[in-house]
Structure formats: C-alpha cells, structure tokens
C-alpha cells in the first residue's frame, strides 16, 4: 500500500472494451461537508456504525472523528505507518496494522490505551475480520504471508504463506478468502480454516490490483487496478466478466449493498466511480463523481449512505517528479451524500466570493428607459430571426447540458466519463452561483414585460420571474470557456457556439441581452476558478486526455 503522497496520474479513455453505463439520475452524490484534521499521511478508514465514529489509519496515529459533533481526535493512539483500522467488540476496541514496526495493535477506542501488540510479519498492510473463523487476517506486504490474529486472546494464531506483494483481501463468509497480489496481477484463493492457499485467479488486463470487494451475494469480485480499470470476476470460476473504466490511483472498493452500489475512489484523477451491483450479470459504472486529487481510500456509513474520503490538497508535481507535495493545513475528510432535491450547495466555490452584488450590476428597473431599450433589441432580434433560427433557439432551450458542444468539439461528450463529470460539475457550480443572483434581483423576463413576445419554452404555469442572469447562458459560457482551454485548436468554434447559445435565449423571449451578459461574467469567473483549483487538477488532466483521443463520433 502506497501511503501519503499520491501520484498525479492522468486517466485516459481506453479503447479496449470497457463497460460504462451513463450516469443514472438517482446516482447523484455531492460533497456536503469537509472535516479538517492535522497534516500527515493517511490510508484506510472505517466506520464504527454502533457509535457513529470514523476511524482513519494515519502515518503516525489513529485518528477518530465523532460524526455527530464533528469532533476530531487527531491522535487516539500512536502508529508507525498505520495502514488498516478495524472496529471490534461493538466499537470498544480498534485493531490497527503498523507497516513500519511489523506489529498489529489492539487499542481501547475511548481512551486510546494500547491493550496489546502482536508481531505479524514484514510490512503488515490491509486486514479483515473473518466471520467464519473469528480470526483477523493481516496481509504482510513485505514477506507475502497472511498473519492470523485471534482477537479474543490478542495473539498470533498462525500464518499462511501466499507469496508476492499482498494487497487487499476479503472474506467469503464461509472460511475462505480472496487476496489481491499486487505484483503478480492475480487474486489468491485462501482457505482460512485449512490455513493454505488453494489457487490463483489470473487478472488479464489488470496491472497492479489494489482494492478488492466481494459483491452480489458472494458471486462477484471487483478488483481495482493501477492501470485505470477495474475487473469484474466470477468468484467461482475466476473468469473475467467485465472490464470497467475507472480513474488513476485507485486503492479501495467500498460497498453499499443496501443501495446496490460499489464505489472506487481514484486518487490520481480525483473521482469516485460509482458501480451498480444490483444485477450480477450487469455490473457497470453508473456515475463518475468529482472528489479531489488524493482521495483514494474511504469508508461508507451504512446508516445514511454517506461516504468519507480522507485527502489533502497537493501542489503540481515539479519537473521530473512523480507527485506533488501536500499543502500545509490542507488535510481534510470529504463527506459525500446522496443529493437531496432543493438542498444543493456549492461544492468548490467560495460562496462569499459569489455574493451577487460583488459580481454583476443590478439589471435595468422595470419600466425604465434602459429596459425599453433592451426590449426594443429583443423585438428586433426575434422579428429578424428566420424560422430555422427560431427552431434552433427552441432546440437549445430544450437542451440544457454540455452536449450542446458536441458539434463544436467533434466529440460525443457524454461518452467521455471524466470529461462529462467535469463539465457537469462546472455547470452545477455555475447554476448555483447564478441562482443566487436570480433570487437577489428578481428580474421579470421579456415575455412577462411585453405579452406580445412569445416565450418559446411555453411551459404550463411558468412565471416570468428570475430572469437575471440566464441559467442556460451560464452553462454555455462556463462549459464553453473550459472546453476552449482543453481543446485550444477548437477554441474559436467552441466560443462561437457559447455565444450563439446565449443569443438563443433572447430569440426565445426568455432573456434580455444584459441577462446573458451577466451570465457571461459569472460563467467565465466560475470556469476560471475551478480550472485553477489544485483539488480538481487530476480531473482536468483526465478530461484533457479523453478529449485528445481520436474523435468518437
């Protein structure tokens, strides 16, 4: 397990067969909180469901977070390159693996008192509690063995020689287990009762398997690979059933069986890949959720479905360096939750900086000479538009997503998972910023000012309010600016499309010219801010790589 500093890997769109189902409307997770902690390395995390606590294996300590109060205990107990944390005894005890000392440690969860230390082997890393034998299996990455620790006696019960660089392992609930062999590109079958390795599953197409999970009632394995894919494997036959496209630097597979989902945090790309596991024969990616570069492990609170991802903000890698450096004071735990209708808030932008009166001037007052001038322009534009242009305006009105740039980019943007996730994030942040201004200014739309103007949207019960700025135009200008930076050879066509999309709002009678210009300001500012956010650098790199690949139209 590589800990702390993370690779600034660039995810590319693979041309080999990969399963990617477009995002489902009900798979929508957002960052709803960030819990700060002290700086330092981090690895696996777990949730004490009974007591509502998050536990994180840090480089030099076990960190504990009370989820209800957000109280952080930075160093519950010492560690030396802590890797794994397991909750025992209904939350009374924590088990931790110590990569540097070769020890496993039992700790009192309330006081941090070290109750026992057990030598396990060289570089103990991942571990799991086997329900069938009652033993804890510890993967010793340094010597290729599995140490079996009895939590009742807090002593070593035996060892199993496996061979290779052991990574994550999972129990099958029947006394067997599966363990990733990182340097062997394979999964080892283990009989924990007989204490021996019983077979190997070759992982063709997987380079460096790390995270591993057993899903679909124990019939399918999902293994995350360093070469930006995850394999779905038949647990019985060992046959690879699907290759899923994920991101760079994955290190865990998190499972929420109740919601029918698995998640792979990809630290290099800064994404959380959501996978549907409800049908064992149709396991596929259903969403790519932006997180932050460095977020490669985590834990799910099964009580409410919230996902906790430890990470930090990293600088750009120096020339020739593999990874950047963590910025002081930036360690945080991202909290993601299923999105609730009407309760979305900014995830990356600073809300204070987007206070409406700091961004755009107030629009022309109702009935003012300035409004009359704008109304005259609206009439001229609408009256001068051809039937074809009016039809385009209606089509633009009905299409409020980044696919409006498919023709200008020469790409089917929705088929590029990282690009689509990035562009939808930009659209979402822009829309929230614009909505604040809509509420603040409450401007009446052209068709509400002059009833001779026909609103092409023609939505039953629609009210002619919230006209300033324009949400559609904000999408066009923010996403357009971003795509122009990622595809500079197509910038002229992309920016022209953004402008034309904004003009469609005027032809539709939905907005005045100043509404769309205000959106130009907010949309461009939003896009520039996110483009320069180091937390999102991995996702921009992944999108740039996808867009640079041969056109997929």
Question: Explain this structure to me?
Answer:
There is one protein chain. Among the domains are: 1-36 and 248-342, no CATH class; 351-548, Vanadium-containing Chloroperoxidase, domain 1, CATH 1.20.144. Helix content is 23%, strand content 31%. It contains nine helices and 28 strands. The protein has helices spanning 369-384, 387-398, 406-409, 417-441, 446-449, 471-486, 491-507, 513-531, 537-548, and strands at 29-36, 42-48, 53-58, 61-66, 71-78, 82-88, 93-98, 103-108, 114-119, 124-129, 136-140, 145-150, 155-161, 166-171, 176-181, 186-191, 196-202, 209-215, 220-225, 229-234, 240-245, 254-256, 261-266, 271-276, 284-290, 299-301, 306-311, 332-338. It has a four-stranded antiparallel β-sheet, with no helix packed on it. A four-stranded antiparallel β-sheet has the order 2-3-4-5, with no helix packed on it. The two termini are 39 Å apart.
CATH superfamily of the domain at 351-548: Phosphatidic acid phosphatase type 2/haloperoxidase
Low-confidence stretches: 1-23
Q: Which overall shape is indicated by the principal axes computed on the Cα atoms?
A: elongated
What is the subunit organization of this protein?
single chain
Under the CATH scheme, the architecture of the domain at 351-548 is Up-down Bundle
Helix content: 10-25%
Number of helices: 9
Mean pLDDT: 93
Content-based structural category: alpha+beta
Spatial separation of the terminal alpha carbons: 39 Å
The CATH topology of the domain at 351-548 is what?
A: Vanadium-containing Chloroperoxidase, domain 1
Based on CA atoms alone, the radius of gyration comes out at: 26 Å
Strand order of the largest sheet: 1-28-27-26
- Annotation, overall tally of beta strands: 28
Largest sheet: 4 strands, antiparallel
